[in-house]
Amino acid sequence: MIPGNPQILTCPYCGTEKEIMSLMSGNTFGAELWSDNKQIAPMRPEISLVQKCPHCGKYFIRTRQEARYAQSGMSMDQGLLTYAETKEAFDQISQEGFKSSDEEIRLRFMLHYAFNDFYYRSGEQREIDKDDWELFVQNGKWLIDNYIQDGLVKAEFYRQIGDFDNALSHLDTVGDNLKQFELDIAKMIREHIDNKSTAVFRIR
User: Fold this and answer.
1) Is the pLDDT of residue 177 over 90?
2) Fewest CB within a 10 Å sphere: which of 1, 65, 184, 194?
3) Long-range Cβ contact pairs of 146-151 (< 8 A, separation 24 or more)
4) pLDDT over 90 (residue 11)
């Protein structure tokens, strides 16, 4: 991983500038891959698509503005949001309106990942809040209906939202025309369905 000069972002609401991390290069050595398709790569750290203004507290999508970089220096600030902040950001930006379908899809995946981060990947035992679960299920159904095409991925997302019947149905449709890696994943999904588990799991 080679960091670049900090990227300079401007809050579109109050004009405050903030510097965040930029990367000249990175790699996926030692990366973790999870069943919700999230990849965690220490040598290619995630820089959050959605940033929170340090002054006014509003959220904005960094790719909506032209990239500007500092002349020197380095920042390790990725602008990552907590789960609570991700929910606030999604609510604010969706009410204001997405500028493209790609924006909505990416923010909905952020919301999905943030739930799994908080309740499962954190390693802490947490009882799932009823409202959080309802939002997770609603968002998961949207992704299944509007974006996800792959049968194996659909099966896994159905499992994560607790729809085990549809998860099994989609697993049955993918057949045996899968690579060994995919067959191994299908087996893990079935095992989690058998245990009535909605928890995301690590693939590698």
Assistant:
1) no
2) 194
3) 146/105, 147/105, 147/108
4) yes
Closest CA to 161 of 194, 133, 120: 133
Residue identified by tokens 């991925």 is 153
Q: How many CA atoms lie within 13 A of 127 on its CB side?
A: 1
Q: What angle do CA 156, 160, 165 make, to 5 degrees?
A: 70
Q: Where does 65-176 have alpha helices with state H?
A: 83-96, 101-116, 130-146, 151-160, 164-174
Structure tokens at 172: 């049955």
The structure tokens listed for 199 are 């928890």
For the segment 90-146, what is each residue's pLDDT rounded down to a tens digit? 999 999 999 999 999 999 999 999 999 999 999 898 999 999 999 999 999 999 999
